[in-house]
Write a structure and sequence with these properties.
By secondary structure, the protein is α/β, with parallel strands linked by helices. The chain is built from twelve helices and twelve strands. It is globular and about 60 Å long.
């Protein structure tokens, strides 16, 4: 474990190596570690294997940037701003991305099993659906379930009879086991203690299911301040490999208590800037490779836009953004 856990966004992305299995914490358009995501594209990471719940713009950007080889999840869209991510859909249709589809609850159980350190967890979810059709075991079809990769289970799932109460067939879901989890949180102590405010989704499970946890935070605060309310903390400092302070590091996704999602940015990305690979490349030239780092990205967004996204401290949502209009 490193002595100084505080690193730059560039160093955080450099911790992820080509071919690594990664987990991204957060939920659709909330608390995605976008500063690190952008940096992964800048550093031209390749052949990443992703396991996560509820991907959105972050994963669509990684796909467009040519970073992902394998996707194991349950959804990849833009929340209310669009259906399936354009880059994601195109890559699947063209056979450039191995897409292993699980049910939503299956994905959560896989993260939970990984967090617990057990090899699998049982469920009744998705019985009777094509999600359990062996024909759609895409990693198996690609010959990747031969046991040579410790991050890929030998089977996508296993059906078994309940041995305890005789209540029929259950699905056994293999644990998610990753090299690195990246995420974005509101506060982190200067030693690494983690606090997530608002909904946590499956972030705690995701953060515990990887060998290394690397986080962005809106603020790095004195450790003793977090210790004053220990029940509000979710990850102890010794589970965190490294962290970076990145205000607005989740943009264009939102962070409860700090800023709203940038709905206009996400909608424009989906409807205009990712319809074709050429459109995405032009957008990436402007917003990713065209800016040096996270600070330059924020400067490009501009103070007015960021200020409008800031939430009212009492209401926890921005009073400057128009809502319910097209």
């Amino acid at each position: 474990m490193r002595k100084d856990k505080r690193i730059s966004v560039q160093e955080a992305a450099a911790e992820i190596k080509n071919g690594d299995t990664i987990i991204i914490a957060g939920f659709t358009v909330w608390r995605k570690p976008m500063a690190i995501i952008y940096e992964l594209v800048r550093q031209q990471k390749k052949d990443l294997h992703l396991i996560m719940a509820n991907p959105s713009i972050c994963v669509d950007i990684l796909v467009g940037g040519g970073c992902l080889k394998i996707w194991e999840s349950n959804y990849c869209g833009m929340e209310i701003f669009g259906k399936i991510g354009n880059n994601f859909a195109r890559a699947v249709q063209e056979g450039k991305l191995i897409c292993e589809d699980y049910g939503h609850y299956h994905t959560i159980l896989r993260l939970q099993a990984g967090a617990m350190g057990v090899p699998y967890l049982p469920s009744w979810s998705c019985l009777g659906t094509d999600l359990l059709n062996p024909q759609y075991d895409m990693l198996g079809k690609a010959g990747l379930r031969d046991g040579s990769n410790p991050r890929i289970p030998k089977e996508k799932f296993k059906l078994a009879s309940d041995p305890f109460y005789g209540e029929g067939e259950v699905v056994l879901l293999p644990a998610a086991r990753a090299d690195v989890c990246i995420g974005h949180v509101q506060k982190i102590g200067d030693m690494g203690t983690v606090r997530i405010e608002g909904q946590r989704f499956a972030c705690v499970e995701a953060m515990k299911a990887a060998d290394k946890l690397i986080l962005e935070a809106e603020e790095v605060v004195p450790e003793e301040e977090l210790r004053r309310q220990p029940d509000a903390n979710v990850i102890p400092h010794f589970r965190v490999e490294a962290f970076t302070e990145a205000p607005f590091g989740a943009h264009p996704t939102g962070v409860y208590g700090y800023y709203d999602m940038d709905a206009a940015f996400i909608s424009e990305y989906y409807n205009k800037h990712s319809r074709t690979q050429e459109a995405f490349d032009n957008w990436a030239d402007e917003w990713i490779t065209g800016v040096r780092d996270h600070k330059a990205y924020l400067n490009k967004l501009g103070a007015e836009r960021l200020t409008d996204l800031r939430v009212n401290s009492a209401l926890k949502w921005s009073t400057s953004i128009k809502r319910g209009v097209r």
